[in-house]
Amino acid sequence: MWILNNDTVVDERALGAMRDQLFSKQRPGLCGAHIIYMGTNILQCRAGGLTNPWTGLSVLNGYKRPANETLQGSPETVEEHINFIYGACVLATRDFIETVGLMDERYFLYSEEQDWAYSAKNHFDFAYAPNAIVYHKEGASTGMSSNSVKLRMFWHLTRSRLLLTIKHKPMALPTVCLSIVYAAFRMMWRRCISKIFG
């Protein structure tokens, strides 16, 4: 099963490259691509990223680095530093789907790919196909222009992080809540600064 956001454009070799890399693994589960921001040479991520379960915060692998530079190095090095595959482009095996199930629709926006990876419980390998080039017009699902949209995005992100924590690591709920409070204060501070200095 190949899942793609509706705001992506894929290179014609992407699917074949992802299939080959995925099935080179001993326990093939999920595979991600080399995802570049549309119309730029800026990378969004290599396959996916790393989520800290104690804060609920995620970092995409290679985020905002020059896309051509991030093609250097082996896929295995990237695979060692990710614990989820970014949901804008993910190839899943039938065995993974039948064992883990489909993505949990309760998330709606954000964290569904982390939930999918956590639910695999290390029974499957995650792969990265550097030759699978995908261009992503990030933010098309939510929009990025108005403050009201940004507040709505923050709400969905917060809700999803809490759901992920309660479902998979409830003991981390206090630290995740602290990180959410910090993020809320930082967002309010930035809005105040932008109003003062225009």
Give a brief description:
With 198 residues, the chain is of the alpha+beta class. Helices cover 38% and strands 23% of the residues. It has a single domain (1-198), classed as Spore Coat Polysaccharide Biosynthesis Protein SpsA, Chain A.
Secondary structure: elements and pairs:
Elements: E1 2-4, E2 8-10, H1 14-22, E3 28-37, E4 43-46, E5 48-51, E6 58-60, H2 75-79, E7 84-85, E8 89-92, H3 94-100, H4 112-119, E9 125-136, H5 147-168, H6 173-197
Parallel strand pairs: 3-9
Antiparallel strand pairs: 1-8, 2-9, 3-4, 3-8, 5-6, 5-7
Helix pairs in contact: 5-6
Average residue pLDDT: 91
- Total strands: the figure is 9
Please give the largest β-sheet: 6 strands, mixed
Which regions contain 5 or more consecutive residues with pLDDT less than 50? none
CATH architecture: Alpha-Beta Complex
Attribute tags:
198 residues, 6 helices, six-stranded mixed sheet, three-stranded antiparallel sheet, globular, alpha+beta, Spore Coat Polysaccharide Biosynthesis Protein SpsA, Chain A, 9 strands
Task: Explain the overall architecture.
Strands 1, 2, 3, 4, 8 and 9 form a 6-stranded mixed β-sheet that branches. A 3-stranded antiparallel β-sheet has the order 6-5-7. A hairpin with a 6-residue loop joins strand 5 and strand 6. The longest helix has 25 residues, at 173-197. The chain has one domain: Spore Coat Polysaccharide Biosynthesis Protein SpsA, Chain A (Alpha-Beta Complex). 38% of the residues lie in helices and 23% in strands. With 198 residues, the chain is of the alpha+beta class. The model has no long low-confidence stretch (mean pLDDT 91). The protein contains 6 helices and 9 strands, in the order E-E-H-E-E-E-E-H-E-E-H-H-E-H-H. It has helices at 14-22, 75-79, 94-100, 112-119, 147-168, 173-197; strands spanning 2-4, 8-10, 28-37, 43-46, 48-51, 58-60, 84-85, 89-92, 125-136. Helix 5 packs antiparallel against helix 6 (173-197). It is globular, with a radius of gyration of 17 Å.
